[in-house]
Specification:
- Pfam families: DUF2129.
- Keywords: Cytoplasm.
- InterPro entries: DUF2129.
- By secondary structure, this protein is α+β, with helices and mostly antiparallel strands.
- It has a domain at 15-81: Alpha-Beta Plaits.
- Helix content is 35%, strand content 24%.
- It has a 4-stranded antiparallel sheet.
- A hairpin with a 4-residue loop joins β2 and β3 (48-54).
C-alpha cells in the first residue's frame, strides 16, 4: 500500500488564477503562449487563445504579451463578473416574461 499525498498548495493555486483572452495574428503562434500560463481553449478559426495565469502576475503578463509581435490584443476575461446563480436566472426569466406580456398587451412584436 502506498501513501496518499494531498497537495494543498495546488488547490490554493487553482483558486488564484485569472483567464486572459489573447488575440493572435497567426494561429500557429499559440504554441508560444505556453510559458505564460495554461492554455484552456484555442480557436483556430478566430485566432484567439484563452489562458489561465497567476492572479498576482496578471498585469505583468498583459504588459509582456502586448509587446510581443505575434499578439494582436489582450483582454481580461469577464467570466468572474457573470452571475450563474439560480435565483438570478429565475428573476431574469420572470422579468423577460413580464416584458413580453406587456408587449403583447400593447400589440407590439419583438421583430
Amino acid at each position: 500500500m502506498g501513501l496518499v499525498f494531498k497537495d494543498t498548495n495546488s488547490e490554493k493555486k487553482l483558486d488564484k488564477r485569472k483567464s486572459l483572452i489573447v488575440w493572435l495574428y497567426n494561429s500557429k503562434d499559440q504554441f508560444k503562449l505556453r510559458h505564460f500560463g495554461d492554455i484552456v481553449y484555442f480557436s483556430r478559426k478566430k485566432n484567439y487563445v484563452i489562458i489561465y495565469v497567476d492572479q498576482e502576475q496578471v498585469e505583468k503578463i498583459i504588459a509582456t504579451l502586448k509587446k510581443e509581435k505575434f499578439v494582436k490584443r489582450v483582454e481580461k476575461s469577464q467570466h468572474d463578473n457573470l452571475n450563474f446563480s439560480a435565483e438570478y436566472e429565475e428573476k431574469f426569466m420572470n422579468d423577460l416574461r413580464h416584458e413580453a406580456e406587456q408587449m403583447l398587451e400593447k400589440g407590439e412584436s419583438y421583430n
